[in-house]
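ok so i was messing around last nite and threw this chain in just to see what happens. nothing serious, just curious
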Amino acid sequence: MQSVRPSLHRSSLKAGILLLAGILLPVVMVAARDSPPDDEAAVRAVVEQYFHGIIAYDEEALRNAFHPDAAVIGLNKEGETESVRFDDWVVYTRGTAPDATGRNNTIVSVDITGTAAVVKTDLNWPHVRYTDYLSLMKSGGEWRIVNKIFHRGAPGETL
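result:
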């Protein structure tokens, strides 16, 4: 019987080591990722800056949120494709901002993979409801919006 015990002990020891490795290896791999754990917070901060910029007509905030080569595309009121570079789109925020009452902006979802992210937003305003899909890229340690595609709907329209 003594020959069985050492073999059971060795089996238990091996199983314990494998279990421990199985627990610790994913922890080490997560800690070694290139992407810091606060990427989602940084992406959300950029989107909040975008929200502020479009509500307050703050061109500087928008320029900080968007990459200079960003594109904005969607269908206009007539149902025709509207595609403009960021520099042409941002001019709509010059002048006096409309009353912000009733303009509710919400982040619906955030999906991040490495240096790429997609954020779905809901801009539910008194006279229109926009759903934006914002593509963001992390470059030089900073997240910026590189593309905005939007759906223009009726106020209160269900997403």
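not much to say yet. Residues 7-34 have pLDDT under 50 and may be disordered.
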